[in-house]
Write a structure and sequence with these properties.
Bound molecules: 3-methyl-2-oxobutanoic acid
Radius of gyration: 24 Å
Distance between the termini: 61 Å
CATH architecture of the largest domain: Alpha-Beta Barrel
Largest sheet: 8 strands, parallel, barrel
Shape: globular
Strand order of the largest sheet: 1-2-3-4-5-6-7-8
Number of helices: 12
CATH class of the largest domain: Alpha Beta
Helix content: 40-55%
């Protein structure tokens, strides 16, 4: 009798241990927070819940952004400026973008990760566009790609979508066309350009883009587009009547110093803080203060 009772206790403890382990495994596989998908973003637009998006190009920063709860991480071709020091976004290559995107993907659990197709990998040839997008998705594991332009790239957008790859559009100031514009001033202030922008927004929506960036255009125009199209509109220098906002991380943290357009809110002066820490370190090393007794073996 005593033996049967012990068996029951043993079996009960054993079953409870297995159950606990299964629960732990499930929690590790399925984070308690929902993964942001293109469908979640669409719901956010419907619920009028604003979407927060920032750029990231490396593992460490991407992990911080994801843990902080950012909705979308853009592996932007602005990496060409802020990571590689080029004057424009034109020189960055597809391999560079895949390297940055892979680093970001190793860090991210929740945010949707969108990767820019770099200049020269999609314009004018929809087959090349599809090939470039497939390389990004396959080699980095990213969730979506972003292309700059309207009607002129709609074939590329449609072809990429045939492979089941979500596409984000980008209108207004499109930095890959800087040599055509000649300057980084506000776009679509004139009637003709504003009309073309609205037309392009409809074309991108009809082509199947899941969202769109509007960069540096009048707030009123961005508000009109946001009302007219059903997909989420993310603004940068496009006012507050849009569905969400994006900034370049290095600009909003004050790592870059020379770039200060009106739309940029700086949340930190990290470049000064880093310089201060580095100066203190140099002083400690030269003054024989570092390492001390506790910092050596
Ligand atoms: O590359 C980038 O960082 C961008 C943002 C400015 C939207 O495209």
């Amino acid at each position: 009798m005593l033996v049967t009772g012990s068996w029951f206790v043993f079996l009960y403890i054993f079953a409870a241990a297995i159950d606990n382990q299964q629960k732990k495994d499930k929690m590790e596989m399925e984070p308690s927070f929902p993964k942001i998908t293109t469908h979640v973003l669409q719901e956010m637009k419907l619920k009028q819940e604003k979407i927060a998006m920032l750029t990231a190009y490396d593992f460490s920063m991407a992990r911080i952004l994801d843990q902080a709860g950012i909705d979308i991480i853009l592996v932007g071709d602005s990496a060409s400026n802020v990571m590689a020091g080029h004057k424009t976004t034109l020189p960055i290559t597809l391999n560079d973008m895949i390297y940055h995107a892979s680093s970001v993907m190793r860090a991210v659990k929740r945010a949707l990760v969108v990767v820019d197709l770099p200049f020269g990998t999609y314009q004018g040839d929809s087959k090349e566009a599809l090939h470039s997008a497939i390389r990004i998705m396959k080699e980095s594991g990213a969730n979506a790609v972003k292309l700059e332009g309207g009607e002129e790239i709609h074939e590329s957008v449609e072809r990429i979508l045939t492979a089941g790859i979500p596409v984000m559009g980008h209108l207004g100031l499109t930095p890959q066309s800087i040599h055509k514009f000649g300057t980084y001033v506000v776009r679509a202030t004139e009637e003709d350009e504003a009309r073309k922008l609205v037309h392009d927004a409809h074309i991108l929506e009809e082509a199947g883009c899941f969202a769109m960036i509007l960069e540096k255009i009048p707030a009123k125009l961005a508000g009109e587009v946001t009302e007219k199209v059903k997909i989420p509109i993310i603004g940068i220098g496009a006012g507050n009547q849009v569905d969400g906002q994006v900034l370049v991380l290095h600009d909003m943290l004050g790592i870059t110093q020379e770039f200060s357009p009106r739309f940029l809110r700086r949340y930190h002066n990290l470049s000064e803080e880093i310089k201060g820490s580095v100066k203190t370190y140099i002083g400690d090393v030269k003054g024989l203060d570092f390492p001390n007794e506790r910092e050596q073996y």
